[in-house]
Every structure is written in structure tokens, then in C-alpha cells.
Amino acid sequence: MIHTNPFLRSLETKARMFAPSARATFDANEELCCWMLDPLARWAEGAYGKRAFDDAAKSYATYCLGVWKCQQLYEKTGRYTPQQIPDVVAGVYEDEGYMVPYMWAAILIYPFWPSMVSHIALYRDDFLKSLPPEAQLLELASGHGVLSLLAAETRPDIRLEGFDISPPAVAVANRLLEVSGHRNRVAFEVKDALSLRLNGNRRKYQGIIAAMLAEHLEDPHSLFSVLAHHLADNGIAFFSTALESAQRDHTFEFHHESEAVKMAEEVGLRVTRFACDAATPVPGGRFLPRALGMVLRRR
Ligand SMILES: C[S@@+](CC[C@H](N)C(=O)[O-])C[C@H]1O[C@@H](n2cnc3c(N)ncnc32)[C@H](O)[C@@H]1O
């Protein structure tokens, strides 16, 4: 079947091996996936032209193969690939040739991976819809920028600023922003998320997004301190992370969902919504890759 969605259509020719599973996830969650993919298709084509869909499909295939290889290595070694953060910064976050395809894949896993699709519902229905009116939002590790842009699209009353450590990722976000029509309410900047609370910065936000960042840090406790420091009393945070999922730039290994919950509770936050779904493990393996999402409020 040739799909009407341009991303799926390209997957069917440029990433055939991964298309059936992506299509099944999309078909089972069509309304939710279209909420993400329809505006994304508009922005992608506006920013990069029609070739964006084939490029995204090829990037998705390369990424899925890379993830699978890393997971197999993880099963052998029993731990994530021992790369130091400065090596990851130089070899991944600062490398445009790696980062741009990675950003396409990072957004496409939301509608196409069964373990990620529940995060779209959590983000849209439990986070975005619950933000106070006129909320100011902060996105940490905004990457491709699509979560902030979708927030702006869904909530015309809010303003957002997104920070990411990767210059090529911020360049992608800015290209999509340029054509999105949200330039007056959204801004992206290159910044280390962990440096935010330094220099006496006491700014408060009614919404904070920290999606798929914690597993990229040496110690995610510092991320939870940033969340607690910058979240307004009436604010809510969207947090997500990967567990037992090896990737080239994953450095902190979460094994138990309770570890992330405990880190949140230790800084005075409480979990008001929670979702966690498993991905396909290596057959006979000891690790079960999962993706966890939480909505947090102050205690
Ligand atoms: C898997 S991507 C997630 C992107 C996006 N948040 C999402 O959910 O699709 C991880 C992102 O974390 C960023 N990152 C890693 N360490 C960071 C740090 N210390 N401060 C800010 N961004 C960071 C990377 O550059 C990359 O864009």
C-alpha cells in the first residue's frame, strides 16, 4: 500500500525494512500521529523542499540500524559504550553530518516506534492542555525543535525558548521555526541545559520540557535540580528518558523506572502522569529497552 502521509510514503521506498512496523504504529494511532506529522510535513517541506521526506526516511533507517547494533553490543558488554561526554560532544553533537540525520530520526521515532507513541498523547493531552494560560515555557535539549513548535501550534497563548548543546541541531530547529509561522513566540539557542541555573538565574517557567535528555548526561540528578530550580509554583514539567537502551550518545544507564521517579521526588516534584512502554529486545537478551514519560508538578 502506498501511504498518503509523505513520511510513510518515503519510508516505503527508502527504508523498506522499517516501513511495516512504522505503518502499523501509525495506523493504530492515526489521529495522534497526524497531530505530529501533518505540521511537521509542512515545516519540513517548507524548510528543506520535497527531498526532506526521502532524507528523513534514509536517516530513520540508518538510526534504527545503529540502535540495533548498539543494543547487541550492550548485551555483550553489559554496559553502555564507554564514551566520555567530551567525545560525544565532539563526535556527535558538534558534527553536522551526524546530527542532521539524527534529528530527523529523533522526531520520527515518536509516531513510528510503538514504545514512543504514548509519549505523544502524554505530551499533548496531559502536558500541553494542562499548562496555565499565557505560560512561559523552557525546552531543555530541544534538538530539532519540533516539540516546542507543536506546543506553539497547539497553544497560541504560550511562548517558548529552547536550548540545546548542539549547534547543528539548533540550526535545524531554526530552519523549521522560520517556516512555521511561530517566530514571534519561539526562540532556539545553543546552550548547555545544565548551565542554566548557574550565574544566579532565577527565572521561573510555567512549563518545562526535558524530553530524552537524561540518558545523555553523566548524572541526571543535575537535570532534576534544574527542573526544580526553574519550575514555577503553578508549573508542570514533561520529562522523558530511555531505560536499558544503548545508543552511541547514551551515557547514563537507567534500569528501573523508580530511579527517575526517585530523582524527581528528591528535588520536591511529584509524578502526576506516567507512561512506560517496551521496545523489541535482542532475542534472549537480559535488557529490555523502554521509553518512560512523566508529567511532574511541585509537591
Ligand atoms: C535524543 S535527542 C532529543 C531531542 C528532543 N528533545 C526529542 O525528544 O526528540 C537528545 C538531544 O540532547 C541534546 N543534549 C545532550 N546533552 C545536552 C546538554 N547538556 N544540554 C543541552 N542539550 C543536550 C543533544 O544535542 C540532542 O539534541
Helix content: 40-55%
Let me know the average pLDDT: 96
Would you identify the CATH architecture of the largest domain? 3-Layer(aba) Sandwich
CATH class of the largest domain: Alpha Beta
Number of strands: 7
Largest sheet: 7 strands, mixed
- CATH fold node name of the largest domain: Rossmann fold
How many separate structural domains? 2
What would CATH call the homologous superfamily of the largest domain?
Answer: Vaccinia Virus protein VP39
Give me the secondary-structure category: alpha/beta
DSSP strand (E) fraction?
A: 15-25%
Biggest sheet strand line-up: 3-2-1-4-5-7-6
Give Rg in angstroms. Answer: 18 Å
- Taken from the alpha-carbon principal axes, the silhouette is globular
How far apart the termini lie comes to: 50 Å
**Ligand types:** S-adenosylmethionine
Uncertain regions spanning at least 5 consecutive residues: none
- In sequence order, what are the helices and strands, one letter per element? HHHHHHHEHEHEEHEHEE
